[in-house]
């Protein structure tokens, strides 16, 4: 054969680390704190709503291209009630196959070959691949660890913008660092986007998972941003049904039409009955969202304290499912080797943050643990990790 099978846009990406680490967990019987999915399902009434939709024959055939009207209206109401953002459910809301498809469709629709896309590094693993599929060039702007948190250097961001920059791909609350961008940071990003006429695609799948007194602010709510922002949401993390893959975008009619042009040829539509269930889930009372936050905040504390006691330096997250640690106090700066040996040494699986970086040196000594697991599982993991300190 004259040339490799896999095209050169995808060839650099190989298989995701999650496959390797989950296989390692299975082989060794280690507790898997690698991949970010809950080990218990979401609310019973939401699951029942999906069963009801299936039985009643709602969504069993192709749903409408932009999503079922009940869900589009619920998404529009959610954005309005929480953030004061008014979107027309018919022209400004698009239901997608999880946030993953929303990210892919947005980049495929909005990026021309040769365009530069700025993404916060470390970045979620699908960003780099989707930018490459769209023919774009990724320009990472690295969040730097400083005084116990990861922070965005706004000067670095400004310096990254060139005449070829098409869009800024944001993620807040941020996976894997747990950073939640502040109003001041978002305002500076918004001013830059307006000044340089850039689009913003913002992945806000962890919008409900913010802790203590942290607030999530959608950048679309800032001056000049509504018409240049595609906001991405998902039911997976908010309702603990990551297998359902119901996500969405909210954006101006022109942006929504563009994203839909790509989306229609990816999956066309998906998840009919689940869309009805998510429409109900979005209308759950505040107590559900508060309860989820309180439960995860307690789990964050349990795992963070255990990791600190085991000798890790811990970056206490303000949001998301993840806690990032520095392994240098444990005598190594090689996150890959550390994660490959951790199942043998301590019976736990984690993810080396270097997989989320172009700059391998910047990511090298950091390791990510997921805390969206049952309390007894986290307690056992903390117990096992304690072996590292002995
Ligand atoms: C989990 C995750 C996604 C994927 O969301 P789906 O709705 O499951 O496709 C996207 N972005 C980030 C940052 C995530 O952590």
Description:
Helix content is 41%, strand content 17%. By secondary structure, the protein is of the alpha/beta class. α7 (183-195) links the parallel β7 and β8 (199-203). It has a 7-stranded mixed sheet with strand order 2-10-9-8-7-3-4, with helices on both faces. The protein starts with 16 loop residues before the first helix and ends in a 5-residue tail after the last helix. Bound molecules: pyridoxal-5'-phosphate (PLP). Pyridoxal-5'-phosphate binds at residues 36, 98-100, 124, 171, 175, 203, 205, 234, 236-237, 242, 245, 247. Pyridoxal-5'-phosphate is lined by residues 36, 98-100, 124, 171, 175, 203, 205, 234, 236-237, 242, 245, 247.
Features of the shown structure:
single chain; 390 residues; 14 helices; binds pyridoxal-5'-phosphate
Number of strands: 15
Distance between the termini: 54 Å
The secondary-structure element order is HEHHEHEHEEEHEHEEHEHHHEEHEEHEH
Overall pLDDT level: 96
In order across it, which strands form the biggest sheet?
2-10-9-8-7-3-4
Provide the structure class: alpha/beta
Enumerate how many helices there are, as a single number. 14
Question: Outline of this structure?
Answer:
The chain is α/β, with parallel strands linked by helices and 390 residues long. It has helices spanning 17-28, 44-55, 69-83, 98-110, 125-133, 154-160, 183-195, 235-239, 253-263, 272-281, 286-309, 335-346, 360-363, 375-385; strands spanning 31-32, 93-97, 116-121, 137-142, 144-146, 149-151, 165-171, 199-203, 229-234, 246-250, 313-315, 322-326, 348-349, 351-352, 366-370.
